[in-house]
Amino acid sequence: MASTAETPQDTEIAAEPTFSLALTQEQKDLRDWVHGFAEGVVRPAAHEWDEREETPWPIIEEAAKIGLYGFESLQQFAADPSGLTMPLVQEELFWGDAGIGMAIMGTGLAAAAIAGQGTWEQVMEWIPRCYGTAEDIKVAAFCASEPNAGSDVSNIRTTAKYDAASDTWTLNGQKAWATNGGIADVHVIIAQTDRELGSRGHAAFIVPIATEGIEQGAKVKKHGLRASHTADVHLDDCKIPGAYLLGGKEKLDERLARVREGKKGKTQAAMQTFEATRPIVGSQALGIARAAYEYALNYAKEREQFGKKIIENQSIGFALANMKMELDAARLLVWRASWMARNGIPFQNAEGSMSKLKAGEVAVWATERAIQIMGGNGYTREFPVERWHRDSKIYTIFEGTSEMQQLVIARAISGMRIS
């Protein structure tokens, strides 16, 4: 008769943790809380601020009052060991509206740069200043791109020159397409410290708006995300203390010395920030895609043509089925990359780029499908899907175009310098 006693191997297998994609109750509660704000406050105001093309300060203030905008909320979202809280929050907020969502969350890119490259003292001093207080709201800007340096960050021409006698840096150059540029209390500027080293000579600097020599340039009138302020930033002999170099002078000198000796200088300043935030950007695109899918689904279940609901036509039903499938697939890539980033697992196969690439492409495709399902109604401003379509397109362009994401992935999986 066979024995039913457990073997040591059985016990060991039983002790293995169970794989699960289930959210914790705390994560569900937070998701529902943000969704409530997006549904009750953000979405009703979306059309107005899109038309006005202005920063929705009253909405940012409301977010700060309830604890959704601020240093403390950032700490809470980032503390989740699963890494999923931040993408959950972003998806729900951008489901409400991407323009207002970016106005609220745009500060996070500068905060991410400070957190990723700054010393502990710099993090504690400057990230709270990025947000201000509920009574005195501030925003921050991350300034990397330039008129001739978008995808090609190695072409950055903004310079930072150090004067040892006065322990000051002098910055000169022009930044382009900066979210919150010129209206931010804190600007994080990516500048070239040694032109011969290309992108390996980049460094990140804190420049408060009160500093002499920094000013807003032309404000950009955009196709989408119109409630989010985007502008050029000009730096003209802008002098800042040596302590405003993120990470400090000693760390920069050590890195530059390694590069000059032919050794690896690790990730350069702009790309380090982008790589860390790509899953977050992907989750924003998810919010837009989900909004369009849900709206189109409800519309198709109510709209009648030729005596039946249009969802009863296979062409419509299949389109919605594919939208749901692509949306869920993109979310899984975003969640995987977010979990990896939070737990220090390297992106060996460019998982961060995969998540941003897939989510951005899905957002554009899904919003276009939603317009097609709604026909002429989808093309008018009386319905929100045309705005979602306009908002989605930037997710195949900013923080790395879709083509650049494919290049990053191709290089990662091949180990070769594909160009």
Helices and strands in order:
Elements lengths: L7 H7 L10 H28 L4 H9 L5 H9 L5 H12 L1 H8 L1 H11 L2 H12 L8 E4 L15 E5 L4 E12 L6 E7 L9 E7 L5 E6 L10 E12 L7 H12 L8 H34 L1 E2 L2 E2 L4 H29 L8 H24 L10 H8 L9 H13 L5
Parallel strand pairs: 1-4
Antiparallel strand pairs: 2-3, 3-7, 4-5, 6-7, 8-9
Largest sheet: spatial strand order: 2-3-7-6
What proportion strand? 5-15%
Low-confidence stretches: none
Range of helix content: 40-55%
Number of helices: 14
Global outline:
globular
Number of strands: 9
Distance between the first and last residues' Cα: 66 Å
- What is the alpha-carbon Rg in Å? 23 Å
Overall residue-averaged pLDDT value: 92
Q: Short description, anyone?
A:
The protein has 419 residues and is of the alpha+beta class. 52% of the residues lie in helices and 14% in strands.
Structural features, described:
With 419 residues, the protein is α+β, with helices and mostly antiparallel strands. Helix 10 (269-302) packs antiparallel against helix 13 (385-392) and helix 12 (351-374) runs antiparallel to helix 13 (385-392). It is 52% helix and 14% strand. The chain is built from 14 helices and nine strands. The chain has a four-stranded antiparallel β-sheet, with no helix packed on it. A three-stranded mixed β-sheet has the order 1-4-5. The termini are far apart. The mean pLDDT is 92.
Keywords:
419 residues; alpha+beta; four-stranded antiparallel beta sheet; three-stranded mixed beta sheet
